[in-house]
Every structure is written in structure tokens, then in C-alpha cells.
Amino acid sequence: MTGRRTTIESLSNPLIKRMRLLREKRHRREEHLFLAEGLRIATEAREAGILPLWLFLGPEGDNHPLAKALAADTLAAGGEVIDTTGAILSKLSGKDNPQTVVGIYAEPETTLADLDRDAAPIWLVAERLRDPGNLGTMLRTGDAVGAGGLILLDDSTDPYAVEAVRASMGAIFTQQLVVTRWDEFLPWLRQGAGQLVATWLGGDTEDYQAVRYAAPTFILTGNESQGMPADYAAAADVRVKMPMMGKADSLNAAVATAVMAYEVLNQRRNR
Q1: What's the pLDDT tens digit per position in 47-76?
Q2: Which residue from 114, 139, 216, 248 puts its CA 20 to 30 A from 191's CA?
Q3: Architecture, CATH, for domain 4-106
């Protein structure tokens, strides 16, 4: 089914009012939709086989070959392409200097049961992650190291918030993403293969480079300010710590995850 192309220039248009609300978590949950801004992110999605349901193009949209291709593919998939103004793009994105492309995408509903743990040697797991920037960075790290995806535990920030999607630089579309709870994740993990590695500041830890990691490796990172609960760390197969040579006692959660992920990747490359 071929979609349609329209023009909207009024901020009071009902569709614009509806899409603006997607910047709020409650409305994203009700609509099962989220917003992604920028041609680079939209192109990453397109290359992953994911197209927007609505594609808003600014005045310069048709001047870029990637934007033209994105619009053509969106229409071919039955989506709607809306030519619009910079002012409307600004309202949709919440930025004074919006990019020329804003896409509205269906929110995936991936569960633990949907994951094939053997499809990738590395999986990232974050517990009560609060900062959207950290979440987006973890997704980018996962994409960079060839991880299978990111599993968010307990009361983590919304991965489909505009800030998190922006920080992911398109990895929101290349990484599988599951939102679940610890008491669901741990039984699922123990049903099959998987080494759970906790980054832990407490006792009973090993140097992160001294451990031989087994695939699939699930790297568990705790809350940015509080770390993870002691019982979560105790349930891990191994607890690791990175040496801190200065006055800081820990790394940023996303940075620690990246260091760990590359150590696991490096071990696999050198085997």
C-alpha cells in the first residue's frame, strides 16, 4: 500500500498537536509511538529496515539525496510524508534549531522471550538507569561492540525519550531493547547459557582484566549514584572492578559499561 504526501504549515493542526505530545512519557505509552529527530538517525533506522509511520520534512528536505530516499521508502511502506516548516519541526523536537527530518516510529514491544541469547556474544544490562544520555550512550556502545542489545531493569529512564533517542545516534534502531524487572530477568538468564558479570565497588571482586569471559556475557551495571543492590551483585557469576588511579572512586555508568564491553570484545578477538 502506497502512503500519501501532504503539507502542514499550521501549528494548530491536530496531527501536529498530537505528535508534540510524544515528548511526554505518558503520551508515548498511550500511543506506543516515539519521535526521532535528524537525518542521520532516520537513515540508521532505514538501513535497519525500520521506517517511520509519519515523516516530517523541513524546507530543505528534498535537497538531500538521503532525505529523498527516506521519503520514497516511507511512502512505499504506506507511511505519510509531511512537508512542513522549521517552526513546526522546532515544536516537534523541542529544539530552537531543529534538523530537517523528524520521524514518528512505532515503539517495539520486545520481551525477554523474544531474545536469542546465542545471537551475540555480549549483552548489556542496566539496573535503574536514570540518565537518558547514559542510556543512549550504552546503546551506542552496544552497537559498536556487536552486542545483542540492552536489557533495562527495574525503574530505569524511558528509552524512547527524545533525549535518549538523540543520544543513541541511531543505535535505538540497531540494538534490541527490553524493559523488565530483576525478578524476571534472573530466572530467564538461568534457563540457558550466559555469564552474568557485575561491575561492583564492594568486596569479593576481581580485576576486570583478570577474568576470562564466556559467551554470551551479560554485563550488569548499577544505578549511577547508588550502584546495584548487594543481592544483585551476589547473584552474578563474577564481580569485577576497574582500577581507579586518581581520587574518583568510580567511573560514569556508561563509561564503565563501555570499558567492560571492550574488554570482553578484546578477549574474543585475541583468542
Answers
A1: 999 999 999 999 887 788 999 999 999 999
A2: 139
A3: 2-Layer Sandwich (3.30)
